[in-house]
Amino acid sequence: METTTRLKKPEAMLFDMDGTLFQTETLLLPAYHKMFDRLRTEGIYTGETPPESLVLSTLGMILDDIWKTVLPDLDAEGRNRANEIMLELEVEGLQSGNTKLYPQVKETLQALKSQGVKLFVASNGVEHYVKGVAHAHDIYSLFDGVYSAGEYKTRTKVDLVHRLLTDHNIQSAWMVGDRSSDVEAGKKNGQTVIGCEYAGFGNHSELQGSDTIIHSFDQLLKLYEEAK
């Protein structure tokens, strides 16, 4: 762990989903390749499948920005079709039972909840996907709320986190995530940020401004126990 300041115990923890709780590539990459096969079959897309690194680099973005990055030459209708196919394939993937959370995620969440910490998800993903991942991995019931940009129509994670904090009258929280959008969301809402550097999607510079950086999810429990 890399700690820059003494942490205070929060009343709540807010978690990003992709790259923080969920090993997104276990679902995303198989669906990604199948989606482009479908787009080519339907005559919507004719090129090669863009590299996996491109779609992985978009994790944490809102949906519109993801498709503008991955499919910059398609019109809105084409992007909407790509999104429909992707969601369909992701549902199939979650039902397959072949996707994974990061090690010790469920156990750590259970331990934090048992100590009275309120737990939330704050994700830029679409509602069906974010809640689907939580249900598929039997962690949905651990959360006091599952917030997504898709459900609340927020343009930034700053806005989403503000909505969450206001809805639940939370004064002190740790924002836990792996991207710069998580750092921004926590800091602009006056909260502590725990940067997660184990997914490998972003780079170290994205987590600048975090109060602490962890290299495995279960380190979060020790941080909480040592906080004053």
Describe the protein's architecture and organization.
It comes from Paenibacillus sediminis. This is HAD superfamily hydrolase (TIGR01549 family). Keywords: Hydrolase. The structure is a single chain. With 228 residues, this protein is α/β, with parallel strands linked by helices. It has two domains: 2-23 and 100-226, HAD superfamily/HAD-like (Rossmann fold, 3-Layer(aba) Sandwich); 25-96. Helices cover 46% and strands 14% of the residues. It contains ten helices and nine strands. The protein has helices spanning 25-41, 52-57, 63-70, 76-96, 105-114, 127-136, 149-152, 157-167, 180-188, 219-226, and strands at residues 2-3, 12-15, 22-23, 100-101, 118-123, 145-148, 173-177, 192-196, 212-214. The strands form two sheets. It has a seven-stranded mixed beta sheet with strand order 1-9-8-7-2-5-6, with helices on both faces. A two-stranded antiparallel sheet has the order 3-4. α9 (180-188) links the parallel β7 (173-177) and β8. α1 (25-41) packs across α4. The longest helix has 21 residues, at 76-96. The radius of gyration is 18 Å and the shape is elongated. The mean pLDDT is 94.
